[in-house]
Design goal:
The protein is α/β, with parallel strands linked by helices and 187 residues long. The protein is built from 5 helices and 6 strands. Helix 2 links the parallel strand 1 and strand 2.
């Protein structure tokens, strides 16, 4: 049996951009014709449901827990990494990519990790827009620190409650979309 990972082709830095540009777009008036089912309301599920509902899809999010807040994402305490280079210490997309692949014992799919590094600063901006109360410096900038063997300061955090605060931000974004009529929650 031949296994096909369907990994995008091309140079590492261009794989996902090339893949995105080759995909067919969905017309905005056709988005309501699709029903999107999302199983799991952890950080990834709640964020995906809120984003897709905001874009106009008919979204249903389900969880098998008695409450969506019981997702394991709440256990993340250290912070979330992003290549924003606030400290001017030489951080970059490639450096975050390398640290992440190295931290995963070189077992990660490199094209996915590179894409994660590319969008990491936008993820932080999305979390701030959702209302996640990241710790801030006295000047108002988001505080960050070196964490987990990283070569630079790139970990954004919420004073030991990062997972819980990220989850609450994603849930509030999802609840705004449900109140707007853009999504439905199931048990």
């Amino acid at each position: 049996m031949k296994l096909d990972a369907r990994e995008p082709t091309g140079p590492l830095a261009e794989k996902w951009d090339r893949f995105r540009f080759d995909e067919k777009l969905l017309a905005p008036n056709n988005k309501r014709k699709f029903r999107v089912l999302i199983v799991g309301t952890g950080l990834a599920g709640a964020s995906a449901a809120a984003t897709m509902a905001e874009q106009g899809f008919d979204v249903y999010a389900f969880t098998h827990h008695d409450s969506p807040r019981r997702a394991h994402s709440v256990a993340a305490q250290g912070g979330i990494n992003a290549a924003k280079n606030y400290q001017n210490d030489g951080d970059s997309v490639y450096r975050l990519f390398y640290d992440t692949v190295k931290g995963g014992d070189f077992r990660s799919r490199e094209s996915n990790v590179y894409r994660l590094a590319q969008v990491s600063e936008h993820i932080i901006d999305q979390c701030v827009a959702q209302g996640v109360p990241f710790t801030r410096e006295y000047g108002g900038l988001l505080a960050n620190r070196s964490f987990g063997g990283a070569q630079v300061s790139r970990t954004f955090y919420c004073r030991g409650q990062t997972g819980q605060q990220l989850l609450l931000g994603a849930y509030s974004a999802l609840n705004r979309q449900v109140a707007r009529g853009g999504g439905k929650k199931g048990g």
